[in-house]
């Protein structure tokens, strides 16, 4: 789904969202209220310019519109892999973006993310996964690391990782597997505007992903470890 069609489906009450150099920003009406919208399109990689632009837009909302909900639209092939960006400290720019999103949450802004096309690696981690809840469309492509790259890093044969991916969502891409792990709250079908209204109404600043992953059978140990740390006990197998 292209971003214009997505915007029309999400915000039938109206919007003033523009695109410049693959960066989306503006405002929209949701159930009679105004929300701020930031995001990316065109599978663009997140370089220092877009990371800073998103951070600036979020800080502007915090500064001038206290409490206004923020919707993040995600379509990125991940962190931009250029020598220039690395030398300028792309990791710090992306960390800054993540901190700005967290600041907005701490200041009372509800933050919802929607993966409508691609969501890969660091570009996804510092945007969609920083929201109160991240949702996805069925056709979305989601992965933190492709299996060929994972094989090179871990030295585990790719054929073995492909086999593991059949039964373990940690190794497998796609919105269904991230839903099983709790990283994606729900996969949206049908009336996107109504589902966005519901998502904003139920958004919580408390991180539920580990608990959801355990309930859905996609992450069996994360919540157990959290509970053990909180209660100062041993992890029960």
Descriptive keywords:
237 residues; seven-stranded mixed sheet
Characterization of the model:
By secondary structure, this protein is α/β, with parallel strands linked by helices. The protein is 43% helix and 19% strand. It has helices at 3-10, 48-64, 83-87, 90-106, 121-125, 147-154, 158-165, 175-181, 192-202, 209-215, 222-231, and strands at 15-20, 23-30, 33-40, 70-76, 111-120, 133-136, 141-143. Strands 1, 2, 3, 4, 5, 6 and 7 form a seven-stranded mixed β-sheet that branches.
Number of strands: 7
Give the rounded overall mean pLDDT.
91
Give the N-to-C terminal Cα separation.
43 Å
User: How much helicity do the residues have?
Assistant: 40-55%
Fraction in beta strands: 15-25%
Radius of gyration: 18 Å
Secondary-structure topology with pairs:
Elements: H1 3-10, E1 15-20, E2 23-30, E3 33-40, H2 48-64, E4 70-76, H3 83-87, H4 90-106, E5 111-120, H5 121-125, E6 133-136, E7 141-143, H6 147-154, H7 158-165, H8 175-181, H9 192-202, H10 209-215, H11 222-231
Helix pairs in contact: 2-4
């Amino acid at each position: 789904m292209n971003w214009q069609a997505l915007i029309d489906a999400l915000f039938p009450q109206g919007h003033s969202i523009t695109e410049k150099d693959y960066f989306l920003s503006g405002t929209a009406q949701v159930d009679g209220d105004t929300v701020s919208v930031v995001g990316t399109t065109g599978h663009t990689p997140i370089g220092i310019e877009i990371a800073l632009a998103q951070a600036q837009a979020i800080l502007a909302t915090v500064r001038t519109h206290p409490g206004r909900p923020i919707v993040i639209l995600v379509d990125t092939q991940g962190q931009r892999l250029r020598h220039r960006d690395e030398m300028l400290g792309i990791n710090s720019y992306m960390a800054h973006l993540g901190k700005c999103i967290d600041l907005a949450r701490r200041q009372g802004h509800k933050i919802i993310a929607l993966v409508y096309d691609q969501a890969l690696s660091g570009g996804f981690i510092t945007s969609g996964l920083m929201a109160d809840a991240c949702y996805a469309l069925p056709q979305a492509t989601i992965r933190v690391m492709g299996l060929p790259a994972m094989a090179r890093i871990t030295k585990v044969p790719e054929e073995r990782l492909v086999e593991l991916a059949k039964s373990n969502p940690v190794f497998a891409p796609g919105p269904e597997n991230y839903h099983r792990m709790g990283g994606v709250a729900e996969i949206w079908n049908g009336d996107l505007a109504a589902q966005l209204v519901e998502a904003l109404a139920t958004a919580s600043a408390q991180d539920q992903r580990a608990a959801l992953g355990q309930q859905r059978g996609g992450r069996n140990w994360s919540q157990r470890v959290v509970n053990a740390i909180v209660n100062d006990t041993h992890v029960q197998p």
